[in-house]
């Protein structure tokens, strides 16, 4: 797709790009210009009406990655992208990967579309490393190669994954650890039960950040030692402090019209360079104002 084109008659840059790459969506072509991916005679050009003359060589740089704060699809904000991985902030109400009822409104679909740059013939894709519930917002990392996926998942237990949650009621202790055995047999809801061959051990460390005694709510930071499905939601519900908006696990209020759970920081080793990477995402304002 990105083979350079040689101009054969005078033209302005944007119409020339549309005509020369007809298989690419016009929105993507404009994105090339905005993020300095278009080069004319070896120099980056961002001016849409830049004049071209016969003999000029126009190309698209394939080494351009989304810059921090670029927004992709339905609100996926980029923290970092290189040839191996992409780290984003997932908004609430967006699936990580497709379900039977939703194929396109997912982080996987929209990031894969971003990598393909509008080229329907491209085989580029992202690879799932971990998941966030649809209702949960916050930091996620996706691999761009199967090798990166394998490396990240192999070391995922060593990655530091911290969340913030606004919960109903007041946690009595300032910090502590939740431990239980989770039964995940039900595809819709997880339960803490007595240990048996089908259960998995779950450990969540917590630290109270703020208590609002007037509203009977607590802002709590949670660090995962294990990564079971709905682990945080079940542990907080077991403690009598369900996440606000989490009616599935016993919440009686939904003041923000969303689940009050946010993946606020992620620390892990780059799968290739082994450099430590750290990303934060501030608690969304609709949750911060609750406490």
**Head-to-tail CA distance between termini:** 51 Å
Strand tally, please?
18
Helix content: 10-25%
* Total count of helical runs of at least 4 residues: 6
Q: Summarize the helix and strand pattern as letters.
A: EEHHEEEEEEEHEEHEEEEEHEEH
What does this structure look like?
With 291 residues, this protein is α+β, with helices and mostly antiparallel strands. It is built from 6 helices and 18 strands. A hairpin with a 3-residue loop joins strand 8 (76-81) and strand 9. The longest helix is centred in the middle third of the chain and has 10 residues, at 107-116. The model has no long low-confidence stretch (mean pLDDT 92).
Structure summarized in a few sentences:
By secondary structure, the chain is of the alpha+beta class.
Task: Itemize the secondary structure elements and their pairings.
Blueprint lengths: L4 E2 L4 E2 H8 L5 H9 L3 E3 L2 E2 L6 E2 L4 E4 L10 E2 L3 E6 L3 E6 L16 H10 L10 E2 L8 E7 L2 H9 L5 E9 L6 E9 L7 E3 L6 E13 L4 E8 L6 H8 L22 E9 L6 E5 L4 H4 L3
Labels describing this entry:
alpha+beta, single chain, twelve-stranded mixed sheet, elongated, 291 residues, 6 helices, four-stranded antiparallel sheet
């Amino acid at each position: 797709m990105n083979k350079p084109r040689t101009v054969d008659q005078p033209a302005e840059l944007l119409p020339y790009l549309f005509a020369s790459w007809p298989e690419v969506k016009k929105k993507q072509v404009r994105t090339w210009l905005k993020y300095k991916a278009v080069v004319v005679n070896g120099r980056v050009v961002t001016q849409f009406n830049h004049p071209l003359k016969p003999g000029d060589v126009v190309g698209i740089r394939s080494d351009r990655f989304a810059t921090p704060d670029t927004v992709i699809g339905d609100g996926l904000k980029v923290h970092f992208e290189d040839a191996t991985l992409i780290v984003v902030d997932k908004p609430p109400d967006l699936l990580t990967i497709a379900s039977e009822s939703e194929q396109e409104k997912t982080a996987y679909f929209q990031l894969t579309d971003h990598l393909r740059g509008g080229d329907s013939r491209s085989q580029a894709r992202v690879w799932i490393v971990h998941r966030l519930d649809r209702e949960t917002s916050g930091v996620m990392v996706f691999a761009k190669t199967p090798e990166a996926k394998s490396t990240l998942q192999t070391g995922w237990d060593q990655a530091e994954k911290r969340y913030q949650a606004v919960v109903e009621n007041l946690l009595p202790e300032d910090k502590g650890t939740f431990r239980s055995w989770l039964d995940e047999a039900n595809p819709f809801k997880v339960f803490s039960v007595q240990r048996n061959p089908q259960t998995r051990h779950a450990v969540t460390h917590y630290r109270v950040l703020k208590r609002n005694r007037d509203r009977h709510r607590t802002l709590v930071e949670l660090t995962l030692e294990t990564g079971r499905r709905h682990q945080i939601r079940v542990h907080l519900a077991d403690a009598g402090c369900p996440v606000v908006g989490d009616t599935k696990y016993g919440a009686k209020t939904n003041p923000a019209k969303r689940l009050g759970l946010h993946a606020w920081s992620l620390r892990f080793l780059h799968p290739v360079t082994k450099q430590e990477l750290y990303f934060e995402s501030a608690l969304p304002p609709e949750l911060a104002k609750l406490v």
